[in-house]
Every structure is written in structure tokens, then in C-alpha cells.
Amino acid sequence: MEHTGPFAHSLETAIALATRLEQALLDETRAIELRDPDELQRVVAGKQQLADQLEEETLRMKQWVEDTGYTFDAQGVERLLERVDPRRDLTPRWDALRGYVVRCDQLNRTNATLINRDRKRVTLSLRILRGEDPNATTYDPRGQANNGTSHSRTISRA
């Protein structure tokens, strides 16, 4: 391998971080499903730290790739690896990192959907408890959806 030491080291570090991030996202999913706010808060803090570290490592890889004259995208890295790694030892590792990133992105989107679903469920429950019509939708002066009215009946008046 021709001068791939810094890139290979950074790649392995990024894979280790991405592996841990994927596990953190799975832990986040579990905390959301169990509705455990303390665990969720703990997991989210760790997830953010891992995401920050992965971003820093990605910037190191990007700098190394760009310093060698290639673009830091799938095609640029593939061309670079063809040139500096003729035995293609790093290609499976690069592909593994890309796979982790795709899975982490999907898990993150899924978790955001779960959180949004739970938020909507809580909002609906609160509206019902206030005696508001959960199906009524109006709009405020900014054009934002405003469900219910300010003159709704509370549960104590129902």
C-alpha cells in the first residue's frame, strides 16, 4: 500500500465509531419504545458524542483524500483506492463504513419518526383531556395549523 497509513488508521477509527453509533441508535430505539425518558436522555447524550467524534474523523479522512487530489465522495475515494491500494485491502473496509453510515442514517430517521409519533399521541391525549375536538383544525395568523379552539371545554367542565 502506497502511503495509506493515515487514511487506513482514520478509516478503522471511523468504523469503530460508526459501530458504536449504530448500537447507540438501537439503544435509543429501545428507550423510545419503552418510553424511558431517563434512559433516552442518557443514550441521546452518548449518541451525540459519538456522532461528533465520527464527524471529526470523517473530516480527517476528507482532508487526506483531498490532499491527494481526489474528491471525498464515493467515486473519488474509489479512484484513490485503485491508485494507492492495488491489492484492494481497504476497499472492503471503506464499503463497511459506508454500510454503517447508511444503517445509522436509517435508524436515526426511524427514531425521529417514533418520537414524532409519540409526541403527536401525547398532544392528542392532552387535547382530548382539555375537551377540545381532536379533529378540528384551524390556522393561526402565520398559517400554522392550530388544532382546537381557545374556547374549548376542559375535562372539568365536561
TrEMBL record:
Gene3D superfamilies: FlgN-like. Residues 144-158 have a biased composition (Polar residues). One of its GO terms (biological process) is bacterial-type flagellum assembly. Keywords: Bacterial flagellum biogenesis. InterPro entries: FlgN-like, FlgN-like_sf. Pfam families: FlgN. Residues 133-158 are annotated as: Disordered. Required for the efficient initiation of filament assembly. This is FlgN.
